[in-house]
Design a protein that fits this description.
- The complex is a heterodimer of chains A (about 200) and B (about 300).
- Chain A has 6 helices and 7 strands; from the N terminus they run βαββαβαβββααα.
- Chain A is an alpha/beta fold.
- Chain A has a 7-stranded mixed β-sheet.
- In chain A, helix 1 packs parallel to helix 4.
- The longest helix of chain A has 17 residues.
- Chain A is globular and about 40 Å long.
- Chain B is mostly helical and about 300 residues long.
- In chain B, helix 14 packs antiparallel against helix 15.
- The chains are: A alpha/beta (about 200), B mainly alpha (about 300).
Chain lengths: ~200, ~300
């Protein structure tokens, strides 16, 4: 079974999104490079596009976001490879029907798509543990992957940088698709945050 | 650690006014409120006059959001000293217990308030909030419906109900709650737009047509609502593409979709100012609109 891994940039932006809106549910997409992979090579999610916060389970804006980001992906030789969601309640870590639907839609285009649920209770300044659970599609169901499998390409780097970003309150400047819809000048590719992460690497 | 007034070069009056703005517009930027409010309370309490009590309340709630129980308790104690026996302060004490997940004790506080005053809406709403926090969505919805039978004009409650229904994927009931809001707030473009989104999510030609109408209505109320513009484009495109509609309906919707598409393009161009990133966005939007283009038959 192909394994999904995340780069530091993908992991950090995802958690920054959750940290920016602690009182809301948030969701977003993960993208991977569109290239032929050898057998056994993991799918590497290189970036994350934060989508919405608050009321997630409505279709129209999700459709717009998926289409627009799909086009952006094609231009940058990426492919949408996964969907993440952080639920509103701290103890709720299971994906809901909407999450499964979106992930299934992504899987139609990319068979090894992953559904990632953010574990809110594991988000801390020290970032001691990876704060996510990865779900994979088996026999029409989404099953949680063994937590002992490393989810990040380089966990110690991700941990160090995530901690620094949280200290800096970088989440204040994170732009999600909702922010973009509020003001088109807001850039959901987050180039400034990408630069900060690169600088910290 | 530099003070807020040093870092941002603001006076205490500006800090107090900012807090008022956030209070009046119901912002939940708790970290900022704590930062500004704590300094205001510690350094400038004597200058605030009677404003200080409402600031204590605002900062206390923000402190609960940020797990600053120390600050929350300080504010609570000041309020308890000043307003002994007040229900409003008792509700705040209950909220602190909620933040500490001591729900049973919090419930007892709210029930005490309600025994004294059965019409206290704040206490009733906190009880529903506890159900929501505990994940008991069905009970929360039931209690909220009962509450609304009595307090039919409570906008905040209707909106909360709509969101609870959306999270449970019960779009029909969510639509009903939003209809209540639209009736009492006919000029609010956000309710129109959210109603249209719910209708679209429900699916089916009739709901799509309704959704298109309400996206259009939202645009009429606020012609800069991008969600309404995108929604109009999507719903019109889907109706035009459906095999179940007449040729006239198809033709009309192709027109609506084309108009919306040109408006979307224009909006992106206006926002673009020719910067590199937005050029890329603009191209992506153009291609997206092309890829969704419905060929008139």
């Amino acid at each position: 079974m192909t394994v999904i891994k995340l780069t530091t940039q993908a992991y950090c932006k995802m958690l920054l999104h959750a940290a920016k809106y602690p009182h809301c549910a948030v969701n977003g997409l993960l993208v991977a490079e569109n290239q032929k992979r050898k057998d056994g090579q993991p799918v590497l999610c290189v970036d994350c596009v934060p989508l919405f916060h608050g009321t997630l389970a409505l279709a129209p804006m999700m459709e717009i976001a998926l289409t627009l980001i799909d086009t952006w992906c094609k231009e940058n030789k990426y492919v949408i490879a996964g969907y993440y969601q952080a639920n509103e309640r701290i103890k709720e870590t299971r994906p809901n029907q909407f999450a499964e639907k979106v992930a299934a839609r992504i899987a139609e285009n990319f068979s090894e798509a992953a559904l990632i649920m953010v574990d809110n209770s594991n988000i801390s300044m020290g970032c001691y543990d990876p704060a996510i659970s990865v779900f994979e599609h088996h026999d029409n169901k989404w099953k949680c992957r063994d937590a002992s499998i490393d989810c990040c390409e380089d966990w110690s780097e991700a941990q160090k940088i995530m901690s620094a970003l949280l200290e800096d309150r970088s989440y204040d400047s994170l732009i999600d698709f909702d922010n973009h819809l509020d003001d088109l000048r807001n850039d959901w590719t987050n180039p400034e945050i990408n630069k900060s992460i690169l600088y910290l690497c | 650690m530099a003070s807020v007034s040093d870092m941002y070069d603001v006076t205490w009056e500006e800090m107090r006014d900012k807090l008022r703005k956030w209070r009046e517009e119901n912002y939940r930027n708790s970290e900022q409120i704590v930062e500004v409010g704590e300094e205001l309370i510690q350094e400038h309490a004597s200058k605030l006059g009677d404003d200080i009590w409402i600031i204590y309340e605002q900062v206390m709630i923000a402190a609960l959001d940020c797990s600053r129980d120390d600050l929350a308790t300080t504010c609570l104690h000041e309020l308890q000293k000043q307003f002994q026996g007040s229900h409003r302060v008792k509700r705040l004490a209950g909220m602190r217990l909620e933040a500490l997940e001591r729900y049973d004790e919090a419930l007892k506080m709210y029930n005490d308030i309600l025994q004294d005053d059965s019409t206290n809406t704040a206490a009733r709403k906190r009880k529903i909030a506890i159900l929501k926090a505990q994940g008991k969505s069905t009970e929360a919805i039931r209690e909220l419906n009962e509450y609304l039978e009595q307090f039919v004009g409570d906008q905040e409650a209707w909106h909360e109900l709509a969101e609870l229904y959306i999270n449970e994927h019960d779009y029909a009931k969510a639509a009903f709650s939003l209809e209540e809001l639209m009736m009492t707030n006919p000029h609010n473009h956000l309710y129109c737009e959210q109603y249209a989104e719910v209708k679209y999510t429900q699916g089916g030609i009739e709901n799509l047509e309704l959704s298109r109408k309400y996206f259009a209505q939202a645009l009429k109320l606020n012609n800069r609502n991008m969600r309404a513009l995108f929604g109009l484009y999507l719903s019109a495109s889907h109706i035009a593409a459906s095999p179940k509609v007449s040729a006239k309906v198809k033709k009309d919707n192709v027109k609506y979709a084309a108009w919306a598409a040109s408006q979307i393009n224009r909006a992106y161009q206006l926002a673009g100012h020719g910067t590199k990133e937005t050029k890329c966005s603009l191209k992506a939007v153009e291609e997206m609109l092309e890829s969704m283009q419905i060929m008139p038959s």
